Amino acid sequence: MSSTESNTVFILVGASGDLSKKKIWPTLCNLKRDFLPSSAKFVGYARSNLTIEDIKAGVKPNYKAKTAEDEQAFEDFFACSSYISGKYDEVSSFEKLSAHLQGVVSVGGCGCDDVNYIFYLAVPPTVFDAVTTNIKQCCMAPKGFTRIVVEKPFGHDLESSELLSRHLASLFDEQQLYRIDHYLGKEMAQNMLVLRFGNQIFGPIWNSQSIKAVKLTFKEPIGTKGRGGYFDQSGIIRDVMQNHMVQLLCLVAMEKPPSLDADDIRAEKVKVLKRVQPIKLEEVVLGQYVGDKSQSADSEAFQGYLEDPTVPKGGKAAQREKAEIRLQFKDAQGDIFSQRCQRNELVFRVQPNEAVYAKLMTKTPGLDFNLQETELDLTLTERFHGHKFPDAYERLLWDVYCGNQSSFVRSDELREAWRIFTPLLKEIEEKKPKPVNYVFGSRGPTEADELERRCGMTFSGTYTYNKSSSKSSL
Questions:
Q1: Neighbours of 189 (CB within 10 A)
Q2: Where are the alpha helices (DSSP H) in 372-472?
Q3: Quick count: other Cβ atoms within 10 Å of Cβ 187?
Q4: Are 322 and 219 in contact (CB under 8 A)?
Q5: DSSP 3-state assignment of 363?
Q6: Using an 8 Å Cβ cutoff, are 81 and 52 in contact?
Q7: How many CA atoms, within 13 angstroms, populate the side-chain half-sphere of residue 402?
Q8: Distance of alpha carbon 414 from alpha carbon 430, whole angstroms
Q9: Suppose 52 and one of 83, 124, 287, 366 were both cysteines; which one would form an S-S bond, judging by CB atoms 3.0 to 4.6 Å apart?
Q10: In which region does residue 76 sit, left (phi positive, over 0), alpha (psi from -120 to 50) or beta (all else)?
């Protein structure tokens, strides 16, 4: 029986936490409004002694209501939501949760015998084993499916990740597990398979004979903003590179899967990761931002990483927000333009303002034979004006409900990703190299530019993307 023909209860474990209030509760509310059947119910579970009204008040500032209908949807959502407090490591607490779930289904259900449970685990790693063990022992759906959504971090190195994977495998089938990486829910990440394998124009040039270098970029214009304690333990490698950036790497480097089946897609991604050698310290540039003392003393830019009081002892504090995949092609063969041509590039902008554009050379209008870099631009919000662009979490939780695992991380993917980065992390911990400083709001360390050049990427600095002049009637 499909999920649309049966009762489904979403259980948010860690319901009072920051992630839950800012992302998961609002996402579930939007799904309830736009997609889920009226019989869907929602239960929050955490250690905090709260009521559902307390949860509602905490979520309200994070819910983006634009109309009176949105406000009503918010009220309707919490009318079919409930909250129960309990310990994470206590069997009796989960027995009470199980009884609560049975009571929720018996009130206002769809009249079906099947009941589906979807658990979203927004809990710290320290309680993960206890929570999953107690769910398995006390809270599995008596009829219907039980699915477990696992939020990162998936361990902190290869060894801890393998321990976590073995623990989960002892309790649940792989088909029940949904390891969520929200980057895979972003519109451009979802679009990569279509753009790559649905357009013949890219097939003949998507190879090492044509492409000189590939650059994956993640930048944020903010610092640690009070998350220094977490970030000092995690770092940009664990927080972004081992998961988000690895997934983008797979999408750009994988071969065409035989079908859109989840395991076919994920099998091709694993093949990519198996070909990647473990990263060495001499192959990276480690940076750390320092405050821009030309700014106001009360601004965030004034404060450096080590001056954040939440840091016990990057990618952050860049000049702007940007996440993109940039393919730089080789120089045009047989130069007849006196070295006036720059390399072509194909850029997939993941955030902000999702777009795909090609940078190419053209002649400027006029009698002179002058060359200029310009672009062919597909900015999705302009081309599909009026379309709803769902939040990444909204898309992924809908996939969980539908049983589609293609945008979730499989255990062998996770193992290979950690295999690539764990030697580097251990080398950093052992040798404790001094990071290169860069100023808050800058492009980052100049040493990173030199590393790019050694890897074959060139930056001419002659191209300016002027969005205001790119309007077209095509």
A1: 25
A2: 380-383, 392-402, 411-431, 446-454
A3: 18
A4: yes
A5: strand
A6: yes
A7: 15
A8: 24
A9: 83
A10: alpha
Residue 114 has a pLDDT of 83
What are the structure tokens assigned to 438, written together?
A: 């860069």
C-alpha to C-alpha distance for 57 and 357, rounded to whole angstroms: 42
Q: Is 188 exposed, middle or buried (0-12, 13-18, 19+ CB in 10 A)?
A: buried
Please tell me which residue in 100, 156, 182, 244 is annotated as part of the active site: 244
Would you call 100 a catalytic residue per the annotation?
A: no
Helices (H), 300-445: 380-383, 392-402, 411-431
29 residue type, one letter: C
Q: Are 351 and 323 in contact (CB under 8 A)?
A: yes
Residues 6+ apart with CB under 8 A from 303: 223, 291, 440
Structure-block tokens of residue 68: 């009176």
For residue 262, is pLDDT > 90?
A: yes
| pTM of the predicted protein model | 0.86
Give the pLDDT band (50/70/90) at residue 405: very high
CA–CA gap between residue 104 and residue 408 (Å, rounded): 29
Please say whether the beta carbons of 131 and 88 come within 8 A: yes
